[in-house]
């Protein structure tokens, strides 16, 4: 059973703050009042005519009658924009007749800014007339002209309030606030590898909040109306003024690298790496109901101790950050890869995958855990921008339009295929550095093409592991991750990027590789050296997690990987797989023309099979061997193919009196271990046969 903290909610919240454990607040920051109600809305005011450099820091401003606002002081250095002498005074407005549209509660004092603020509700659409007394704040930033063309002279100030934007202007001597567009927030500015600049914006309405990425050019006057395709309502009559406002705001936002938006990012130098997944609004969440990390680990370890398979999956899930760090900081030649855990239903594949996804963030988030998407393009686009965080895919055998070979090779190459835009310019390709963990009841890639050795390195097929011990164990995993997620990822990355702890990660990796070499010494094959690179990353991760306090046995993890290496060595032998395909065909088609079986004198042993050239090609292509020449060369190298002449794979022989080009396959080694058995029959005499295992 899972032990829950007995602390009261208030005490638990205090402990979470003290220990740095709790849910990351991704909501907009709200100012707190001194014991009264919090602000219902905030207004931010900007003089759109300011053309000098600006600072986006909000400054204290005097309250405005009828408006709950704070001035965004985009500081300028011209004397005419200097604040007046009374700018720092707190102005308490006198009671006056306000429009019915305003809903003003009691006056409260903000404990942060120490100014009087009057909350107010403003409609989404319409015009609000204001009195001159309401406009004292305008003196703080100056009211200047915005000229469009030669004749249209406008005096206006952009006002951002709780549900939209408005323009403060004059109709004669009467100041009015005119609605211009629905509210959006600009979260960040990113630069793509092709030099184009994009903006992540938050679009809000009464039902939902959605983050989208748009080109920065959309905020030019001529393009502003394109925001309507994202359901952003606006008044096109004010496109010029709103464009100036957004351009000034965009100038103040620092540029980020679009290709590294989640996970490991580069700091001041290429060797200075940071992990940003828990520090950005659209990043990972982390939450726990325990008072401290050691209490959390106590129950976590009880869940993973009984299952070495689950320990292996935990280590693999966390090794993505190690793999990316070794590549980025130490230039070690490593690649992203897929791991396909295969097993029958009820073996705990899905719940164990969700449990490991919860090491990073809320497992219900599609940032970490989702089903295999419908097409290869969509599946690969899902990986874009992941650096050092894993990707979990459920039911991977339900492929839809995904090509397993294309997907496996693309993940390994860490880049989408190059494509063109509609204007024939090269489209930016997504990039990543991740480990894709797929669960399925069948192999993600087709078994008939298992001779493709490249796929064995790119997709690790792990079969028949029991991740959960019983139903109670599975239920306990489900219950634990419901309120506890992101904790291990948060703690592990903090420790990993602490320069005092792991400055020699490359040396630890080499030590891990040598340790793994000992585990696979008795099953070395042509793929072992390449597999050792990823095995060493997982083994190193297991040792570091053990130091962090997790109940992981690196030796148990290593043994599972050694078994995988042995399986790869057996199943990925190109020559042996081709021989199996040929023997299987001959056994199913004993009377097929174009085949000649050469036996010993007694006829009870076939020591050579001769197959006509075109039929050989047909047999091998049907079994998935697409390159006939490479396959036959491997068979010749393994002495499974008999050459009539040196340097030639084909032989010129006679089959059923017809002379033609053929291939001779040696069966001598194959029949050495053939078992002789007696097969009884009611209709014929006993006969000797050999049985092929």
What do you see in this structure?
It is built from 17 helices and 31 strands. The protein has 693 residues and is α+β, with helices and mostly antiparallel strands. Helix 15 crosses helix 17. Helices cover 30% and strands 21% of the residues. A 6-stranded mixed beta sheet has the order 2-1-8-9-10-5. Strands 18-20-23-17-24 form a 5-stranded parallel beta sheet, sandwiched between helices. Strands 25, 26, 27, 28 and 29 form a 5-stranded antiparallel beta sheet that branches. Mean pLDDT is 74; it is low at 1-122, 133-154 and 677-693.
Question: What's this model, at a glance?
Answer:
With 693 residues, the protein is α+β, with helices and mostly antiparallel strands. The chain is built from 17 helices and 31 strands.
How would a crystallographer describe the biggest sheet? 6 strands, mixed
Please compute the radius of gyration using only Cα atoms.
35 Å
Structural class label: alpha+beta
Q: N-to-C terminal Cα separation, in Å? A: 47 Å
Number of strands: 31
Mind sketching the topology for me?
Elements: H1 9-19, E1 44-46, E2 70-71, E3 108-109, E4 116-117, E5 127-129, H2 138-141, E6 145-148, E7 152-155, E8 157-161, E9 164-171, E10 174-182, E11 184-191, E12 197-204, E13 209-215, H3 239-251, E14 255-257, E15 262-266, E16 273-275, H4 293-304, H5 308-330, E17 337-342, H6 349-357, E18 369-371, H7 376-381, E19 386-387, E20 391-394, H8 404-413, E21 419-420, E22 426-427, E23 435-440, H9 453-458, E24 459-463, H10 471-483, H11 487-496, H12 505-519, H13 528-548, H14 554-571, H15 574-588, E25 595-599, E26 606-612, H16 613-622, H17 628-637, E27 641-642, E28 651-655, E29 658-666, E30 675-679, E31 687-691
Parallel strand pairs: 1-2, 11-14, 15-19, 17-23, 17-24, 18-20, 20-23
Antiparallel strand pairs: 1-8, 3-4, 5-10, 6-7, 8-9, 9-10, 11-12, 12-13, 15-16, 21-22, 25-26, 26-29, 27-29, 28-29, 30-31
